Amino acid sequence: MSTNQNSTEHFLDSSDPPLCTLPALLGPPKQAACFSLCNEQLRVDSIAALRYFVHPPENVNLKAGYDRLSHKQRSFKRVRRLDHILTMCLQSKNSKQLLKAEVITWRGILKKIMLGDKVDLNVSYHNGVLYLEEQGPRKMYCDPISYLGYKFETWCSSAYPQGAPGGAVDLQTQWNAAVIRKLGSLNVLLVGEVDCVKSEYIKHPRPEHYVELKTKTAKPGEDVYRNIDWAKWEMQTLLIGGSNIFVGFPDTAGIVRQVDTLAVRENLEPVQPKIDWGARVLHSLIEYCARAPDTNGVLKVWRVQLRKWYVDIRELGPAEVKALNQGDVARNGILPASFINGLRRKSTASQSV
Questions:
Q1: Cα(243)–Cα(15) distance, integer angstroms
Q2: 0.90 cut: is pTM over it?
Q3: Domain residues for 335?
Q4: In the predicted structure, residue 4 carries a pLDDT above the cut 80
């Protein structure tokens, strides 16, 4: 292996022997915390942004209202960094449980790993925990196609149980659930946006009551189910513990002519090879990064390039890390310095008890 920190190493291939016991079974999901994002304001352990599932009216027009959105309203930031998750880990009433995780990341990242999607990650390792976030731009734009999905969400949810659906598309508000579950021997914390929940969630706030909302445009004479990206939809839902996906099928004019509830499989055997691949990637990264996670207290940042069934890795140089974190909060590796300081304070407090 080259000692040049800027060189890329072919890190893992699907044909390599695994570093973990397989099959890596998914343990039962448990909601450990949550947070609301309202106009970029973070509220830990809050359901302020939570929405409840309601059945949509017939023949709703998902294109209605797009032309009235200003350019500013169509633009939004996609949260890629782990900062909100890490703040939740420090501030939540279940902080102690959250900080027992060995892997902390967004649900969407693990989904992409398991499906063999092309994705670039930035990774740091600190005190026995692997942290993964996605590399890429944060600014997003709501185009007419993606608007259909956002509009469908407004027609299928309400701010109150049994409330009225509808309303304007709001790209600045979302509710995120933090789920802890085992992946083989690893204790993994996954955080992801939840579109809405069933009314049963009020008394029993468990992942089984999460509802994923999706749309698929149906062209005349087309089998609407044939072109669904089911592998992506299902993995996204099952990772966080959801049990079903509610789908709207708008025609080319944007009118929803059909809806259906699709159940997520309970028998994971058909997708176990994908789950195993995810476990192999995480175990290999932990083994690799734990060898030398820092240099004189400065956490390293690795750029991890995942392609279909192989992984490349490269340690970023100081200039690259500086560019990655430029104009941002003070960081050590990819972690906010405030988070590391918070961990120290919690450790000191627990030792003094």
A1: 33
A2: yes
A3: 9-56+77-196+269-352
A4: no
